[in-house]
């Protein structure tokens, strides 16, 4: 940032503080902070989102660092630089999960699963987002399994089954869960052979638009462990390159969509939230396997302060014109956690 931009930012910060310091006492009370939140959390049509009182109080406490019941100018500087600026100008990543042939019309066609969803239906809304929304970065993930992968039912006899497994190699069927002996013992849902490396089934669907300079993330490459999330394998033994790429690009917000809603998409959204990202699940750009599991996925995302939206809402959010309080609360709690980690680190030193 050049000196002129820094100076303008400082002027804007000072003007903001002064505008909401209604009683001119050079500090912001909870009531005045609430007015800031009313100005911040609204959509592009002027609708003001209601922020629960307990969330307002918790966010206020994050920025009232000396706990005197007010946010002074120094504390507001932290609030401005680390919270308000991110809410108004987020850095957005679009993550398209596993829109591959095998899940749409191949060996693991999700239309044959309980929810009977048509995976092909995600392509048009995803393409429209790619055409109309300027994401800061776009990622495509691919299941990329070796032929001897642990998740394939036709490989079940390649590995010993643990004595506690409810099913064995002779009576387990596709979509069942067994426990392999390991070590360590490992639960594994059994799938049809799918997305084998360098096969037609593993390719992204031909109608899916691929953005120039986008990044492909390959997962499930270890034959001994499955990998639903685009961040980690299922045992959290190794991560993909996604974590490093997001940090390199200073991403604040992750938009997640693709196949399957309740498996790889859900696991990815969960890990994005756990990693501290403001996370948005795009409902109409996802299709899944099991209706109950899809609802459980939605509930988990919402309970972790993620947001679920329709694709038509995404553009305004990416541009900072539709600012959701859930994402503001998520960011404030991450800032609080970061401060607590720093304090623990200082005590250890």
List the helices and strands and how they pair.
Blueprint: H1 3-20, H2 30-40, H3 53-63, H4 73-88, E1 92-97, H5 101-104, H6 123-132, E2 137-143, E3 177-180, E4 186-189, E5 215-219, H7 242-248, E6 253-259, H8 261-274, E7 278-287, H9 291-303, E8 307-309, H10 314-318, H11 325-348
Parallel strand pairs: 1-2, 1-6, 2-5, 6-7, 7-8
Antiparallel strand pairs: 3-4
Helix pairs in contact: 3-11, 8-9
Molecular structure report:
The chain is α/β, with parallel strands linked by helices. Helix content is 38%, strand content 13%. The protein contains eleven helices and eight strands.
Shape: elongated
Which secondary-structure class do the elements indicate? alpha/beta
- The average pLDDT value, as a whole number, equals 93
- Which percent range fits the helix content? 25-40%
In a nutshell, what does this entry contain?
With 349 residues, this protein is of the alpha/beta class. The chain contains eleven helices and eight strands. Strand 7 (278-287), helix 9 and strand 8 form a beta-alpha-beta unit.
Keywords for this entry:
single chain; 349 residues; alpha/beta; 6-stranded parallel sheet; two-stranded antiparallel sheet; 11 helices; 38% helix; elongated; disordered N terminus
């Amino acid at each position: 940032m050049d000196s002129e931009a820094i100076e303008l930012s400082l002027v804007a910060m000072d003007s903001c503080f002064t505008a909401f310091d209604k009683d001119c006492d050079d500090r912001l009370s909870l009531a005045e902070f609430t007015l800031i939140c009313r100005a911040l959390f609204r959509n592009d049509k002027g609708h003001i989102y209601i922020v629960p009182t307990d969330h307002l109080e918790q966010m206020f406490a994050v920025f009232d660092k000396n706990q005197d019941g007010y946010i002074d100018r120094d504390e507001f500087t932290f609030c401005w630089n680390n919270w308000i600026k991110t809410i108004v100008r987020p850095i957005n990543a679009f993550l398209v999960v596993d829109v591959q042939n095998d899940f749409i019309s191949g060996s693991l066609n999700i239309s044959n699963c309980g929810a009977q969803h048509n995976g092909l239906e995600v392509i048009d809304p995803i393409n429209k987002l790619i055409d109309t929304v300027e994401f800061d970065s776009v990622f495509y993930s691919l299941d990329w399994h070796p032929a001897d992968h642990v998740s394939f039912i036709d490989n079940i006899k390649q590995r010993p089954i643990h004595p506690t497994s409810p099913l064995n190699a002779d009576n387990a069927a596709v979509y069942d869960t067994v426990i392999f002996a390991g070590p360590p013992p490992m639960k594994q849902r059994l799938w049809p052979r799918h997305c084998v490396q360098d096969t037609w089934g593993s390719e992204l669907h031909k109608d899916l638009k691929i953005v120039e300079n986008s990044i492909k993330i390959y997962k499930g490459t270890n034959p001994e462990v499955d990998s639903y999330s685009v961040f980690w394998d299922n045992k959290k033994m190794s991560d993909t390159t996604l974590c490093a790429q997001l940090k390199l690009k200073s991403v604040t917000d992750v938009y997640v969509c693709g196949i399957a809603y309740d498996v790889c998409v859900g696991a990815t959204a969960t890990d994005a939230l756990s990693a501290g990202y403001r996370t948005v699940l795009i409902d109409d750009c996802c299709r899944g396997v099991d209706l109950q599991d899809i609802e459980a996925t939605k509930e988990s995302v919402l309970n972790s302060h993620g947001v679920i939206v329709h694709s038509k809402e995404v553009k305004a959010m990416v541009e900072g014109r539709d600012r959701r309080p859930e994402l503001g609360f998520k960011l404030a709690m991450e800032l609080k956690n970061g401060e607590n980690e720093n304090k623990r680190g200082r005590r250890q030193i």
